[in-house]
Amino acid sequence: MSIWLAIPGLGGSGPAHWQSHWSRALPQVRRVVQRDWDAPSRRDWVSTLDAAVRGSHGEVVLIAHSLGCALVAHWARQHTGRVRGALLVAPADVDSAAHTPEVVRGFAPMPLQALPFPSIVVASEDDPYVSMARARQFAEAWGSRFASIGAAGHINADSGLGNWPDGLALLESLRAPTHDEGVVNTL
Fold this sequence. Notes:
The chain has helices at about 20-25, 40-55, 65-75, 130-140, 165-175; strands at about 5, 30, 60-65, 85-90, 120-125, 145-150, 185. By secondary structure, the chain is of the alpha/beta class. It has a single domain (about 5-185), classed as Alpha/Beta hydrolase fold, catalytic domain (Rossmann fold, 3-Layer(aba) Sandwich). A 7-stranded parallel β-sheet has the order 2-1-3-4-5-6-7, with helices on both faces. Strand 6, helix 5 and strand 7 form a beta-alpha-beta unit. Helix 2 (about 40-55) crosses helix 3. About 45% of the residues are buried. One of its GO terms (molecular function) is hydrolase activity. Pfam families: Ser_hydrolase. InterPro entries: AB_hydrolase_fold (IPR029058), RBBP9/YdeN (IPR010662). This is Alpha/beta hydrolase. Keywords: Hydrolase.
């Protein structure tokens, strides 16, 4: 059985967030817990993620949200471990002062190298933290499939997704033996 590591962004994912629903409902989900959710340090967060991957038995699937997507991109530049794939949801544009707060600027510049594992970038048309064009640019640079879910805000608790079954379906498609590249407009 693979381990699914839920990687929240700035502030962590509260109890109504889909990552929290998955953590409670699915025994294979483990949350990566950062020391400080509100004043993120790229070095500390990368180290924490690396320890979580190394401490997991078997293959690992990364499930990142917002700043967690930038974290995965930074981590993947130096580490790979046994990562089977990554679901990268609502990547925060850490390079943009217009879209993200100053506290995340330590994660800039956003790495734009291909990821060494299959991945899917999931974006919303009205996400205040990243434009659709920028989310597509991340997907292309990372070699990720791209999935637009329409207007769903930041794809967080405020989006009202609950346990987000469509997100689980995307995750299952990532874990399938074959991984088709390209753009997916779904959900």
